[in-house]
Specification:
28% helix; 5 domains; six-stranded mixed sheet; homodimer; Ubiquitin-like (UB roll); Nucleotidyltransferase, domain 5; alpha/beta
């Protein structure tokens, strides 16, 4: 038997020599994408073997992998067999995970030194004696205790640890505040969460090595109180005390559920978590912290606080160590919050030369343009359509969701997540379908659906196109995309495109001047870029100028845990960003009304 | 009608012109001592009129007050009449209060500058505009918000206050931590408590003026779990988790009760309290903070922490502002805790020239000797006898307790608190009785009770002397003092005297070298010094070398609230104190066995 570890998802499994890595992954519950079922045809299941003995490259792999893939060490999990019984460590790139797993938590990572805000000290104390009656804390060697503040819950653990471990212990501290005393070998852990309006993505991190030792995703439970930000803010403004604490409790409960999930899988206690980072838009930030939102929900939309926050995590109800602090990066302005700052950190947007456009696509889409070092940001209300909401047969990216649609030989062809029987359309499927219907000329440039196709049924705005027959949707009819679904997509993509256009204009540039478009976010990671460009969601740039990076906000949250300098960097970035408020921008209405057109260049 | 305020006890009442201050005090529930009933005979009811119009000095006052009294502004409350209707402020010295009121909370106060650790800033913010979309906190004028850490509960209050008060607000901060944002006119309050093994004394303080605006005392509710420190520690050592949290909850509940009492009387919310100081011996300190006590309860008796603590008060369960910190001064060693440090601060012991002996008499009696700048401290287990415990007819200093006993014309004469029917003996009464019986030669020097007096009954150790007939004691017999009561007092006073002797020897001095004896503590404030000297509790020094200062620990706790420099001073004092552990001191047993003798000089 040998031990196979899958990184960065953080799962381990036992396997036999001769097993393929794909089999091991399936046993571990790591959903590596393999459309062909592991017979060496699709070339989806690409992984890297970081350590351990495996079979040599075979002709199937040489056929299906490009020279660049091979040079970067990629292999096909279905072809690589385990040899011997040493430990094997496998890196699974985000692209190789099926949509459901990769959508919320995975993202590209730029290497980072491990130098966390939570510092760890390995210390020893002198045993007490008649000649040394000082307190346990005062008998610590090599550290001046008067330089540190230590709270009651923290000092309570020291006497027991000292006496159980021969006067050795580990101390975790934030600046000059003791966060916890630990037994000498215990790993200090961190917990980072991207708090999206719709989804939560959580990471459990070893703060000594920077390694991710657990990942989990969940729906933001606040969704029960309103799908978009404004619905939730309105609820609180109407009944500040009750609704505010209800929404706060809801998200804290959601975070605790994720915390328990990752900790249970990693075999640690939730109270072993000593530092927490959450990133979210300004509304999520305020609702999580229990801050008032009246002033945030109406013009001129000012937050209670813009700067980075550091507040006791346990006081908010998080089931972590009593001394653990919760850090939230600074907010930019309006709804552009710390999640976008985290995304800019994770993608190094602020450090890139030339003109870079970074988008984090979600219920709100934040857009930043870095034009040769000068930066502009805005937030666009793209709405929940990309998450499948407000769409007749929409659904989240789960088993059975149609995630890919193409127009092929006169009809729509589709694929579902995990090849399950279709039950609805997830965001990428809807976007694909709009592009497919537009390319087949069943949709006009304004989004009107032509009636003369055999699969188009219904009347006026109830008109719809049958995508797939299905028996499991519950409404007893085929899965389709309606005229009003198309309009939802037009509004969503139009808001994003108008935002891009306005930032480009603020910088005095043309869309074609953009050298690189970084697309982040659960949905953004999985959309078909060619289709998105064709329907005018993104500027019509060559596709090689685009990079899909996954959940960059979540990765940025992890970076803020792992390296304290990233926290200073976050403050710097916010200071240099120029925020553009779109709601009262003189050009917005005009740009938006053009941007809803289903064409790559609506400005012509 | 006019308003009469009694300081420092903090009570107010309405009165009519022509009323005496004694009548006003009685209406306010301020128990000014007046044995003669207010007819101008006893001269007990001494007060100072700090402000307001009252009648001129009359011949009765001139008769009963000494020149020194008159020079210091003392008047007799029963003789001073209210004139006109302006506000009157009266200072009631601790000595003028009846025992029950003055025992726990009153004490001599040395003037102190108001410069609290909790700083208050009066600030303004720029209103937001399209041109200034920063957060509310970032728009504050004249302060760099990045220099301050602000938690979630604190920032939550800012937007509402700014908008309700035309962008003005008050900020309370500890170092660089925001404690609370307040409306512009709100007074920042502090709460100081002396946490005694037996009693609690609490003070509500205006942190802008340093004035005491409320005082309250109560029994330490932990007493239900054991009268002395060791009983409570043993309980926790046997069942650390359950008993520790039970005792912690008990004292926190007790503090919250006092907090609610003083806040209700002052018409403020408990959450308006922004800073808290508690002082207590090392065991009270550990039990309050929930620290383990195993290592404290067995040799070499080391605390978990000696240094001053600063910990979030709300996290411990105190019903104060979420950001309020609880400060506890440093512990010395063994059971000599921060309460003794506070007592040393309040009495300025460390600053006095010559040789000063300071004692804080309680269930444990802490003793410090300052011999020309060098200081030694010890703790003696004086036990709860002075509180009336372990005494056949003992009781606390409450209505009906015999508080004063003298031998007069061949029999014991006694006085009860508030002249109520006698129900038992409180500490001072017991001590007086021992002295009286010794002076009448009914007790021998070794504490044996002679059988040949008509009021002595019983056999062997059950032998007792009838002090007073009473019908309300419940046991249906006369109040008396038994041979074993006398032994309890011998052990208690012997422990104190042995401690004094050993410190004097450590300093290479004789008892007679002591220039000043400062006697503090609930009980110490009220004992008859002459009697205490005669039975050998204190060295036989001239009585003018003694000073009774009341609850100096509580007054010290207030000082730590009112002036931050006192906190540095506390650290300095602890650094300079030499702690003498008596339990294993080579000379202790010998000195103690002599010190139990009922004679002024047991060393002869």
């Amino acid at each position: 038997m040998t031990d196979v570890a899958f990184q960065p998802i953080g799962k381990r499994v036992q396997a036999e020599p001769g097993d393929t890595l794909l089999e091991a992954a399936q046993n571990a519950g790591v959903a590596i994408s393999a459309v062909c079922g592991g017979v060496g045809v699709c070339g989806d299941c690409r992984v890297r073997v970081l350590r351990g003995a495996v079979s040599a490259l075979n002709p199937t792999e040489e056929d299906l992998l490009s020279d660049a893939d091979l040079a970067s060490g990629l292999r096909l999990a279905c072809q690589v067999e385990i040899v011997g019984d040493g430990e094997i460590v496998v890196d699974v790139p985000a692209d190789s995970l099926s949509a459901a797993q990769r959508s919320q938590v995975e993202g590209e990572e730029i290497p980072l030194d491990v130098d966390p805000a939570l510092r760890t000290f390995d210390l020893t104390a002198n045993p007490p004696s008649i000649a040394d009656l000082r307190g346990d804390w005062e008998r610590v060697i090599g550290l001046d205790p008067t330089n540190y503040r230590v709270g009651a819950a923290e000092i309570a653990e020291l006497p027991g640890i000292l006496r159980a471990h021969d006067w050795h212990f580990r101390m975790a501290a934030h600046d000059h505040d003791v966060v916890r005393f630990l037994p000498p070998a215990q790993t200090p852990l961190g917990f980072a969460v991207d708090v999206g309006t719709t989804g939560l993505a959580a990471y459990l991190v070893d703060l000594l090595t920077g390694e991710t030792i657990g990942i989990a995703g969940a729906t933001n439970p606040q969704i029960a109180y309103g799908e978009d930000v404004m619905a939730r803010l309105t609820m609180v403004v109407r009944d500040p005390a009750a609704a505010g604490s209800k929404l706060q409790k809801s998200i804290i409960d959601g975070l605790n559920d994720l915390l328990r999930e990752v900790c249970t899988l990693a075999g640690v206690k939730t109270t072993d978590v000593l530092d927490v980072v959450t990133v979210g838009n300004t509304a999520m930030h305020h609702l999580l912290l229990g801050l008032p939102v009246e002033q945030l929900g109406s013009a001129p939309y000012v937050p209670a606080i813009s700067s980075a926050m550091q507040t006791n995590a346990r006081a908010l109800g998080l089931a972590v160590a009593p001394g653990a602090m919760l850090y939230l990066p600074p907010n930019v302005a309006g709804f552009v919050g710390g999640d976008h700052v985290a995304m800019l950190l994770a993608t190094a947007t602020a450090d890139l030369p030339g003109v870079t456009l970074s988008l984090d696509i979600g219920t709100n889409t934040e857009v930043t343009l870095n034009a040769n070092g000068q930066m502009w940001s805005c937030s666009t209300a793209s709405g929940p359509a990309f998450e499948g909401a407000h769409i007749r047969d929409g659904m989240r990216a789960a088993d059975g969701a149609i995630e890919r649609v193409v127009w092929h030989e006169g009809e729509l062809k589709w694929l579902t997540i995990n090849h399950e029987k279709p039950v609805g359309l997830c965001g990428s499927g809807i976007l694909d379908a709009v592009y497919a219907l537009r390319s087949a000329d069943i949709l006009t440039i304004t989004g009107r659906m032509k009636r003369d196709h055999p699969r188009v049924s219904g009347e006026n705005h109830n008109i719809w196109y049958e995508v797939a027959a299905a028996t499991t949707t519950g409404h007893g009819r085929a899965i389709g995309i309606s005229r009003s679904d198309v309009n939802e997509i037009q509004l969503a993509k139009g808001a994003i495109r108008a935002g891009i256009k306005i930032l480009v204009e603020e910088a005095g540039l043309q869309e074609n001047d953009i050298d690189l478009v970084i697309v982040a976010g659960a949905f953004g990671n999985y959309i078909d870029l060619a289709g998105a460009v064709e329907i005018g969601m993104f500027p019509p740039l060559p596709l090689e100028r685009f990079r899909q990076v996954g959940n960059a906000a979540g990765i940025g949250a992890k970076r803020l845990l792992i390296n304290a300098a990233e926290r200073s960097r976050a403050a710097e970035i916010v200071q240099h960003l120029q925020y553009v408020e779109l709601t009262n921008h003189p050009a917005f209405k005009d740009r938006f009304s053009q941007a809803v057109l289903l064409t790559p260049n609506p400005w012509d």
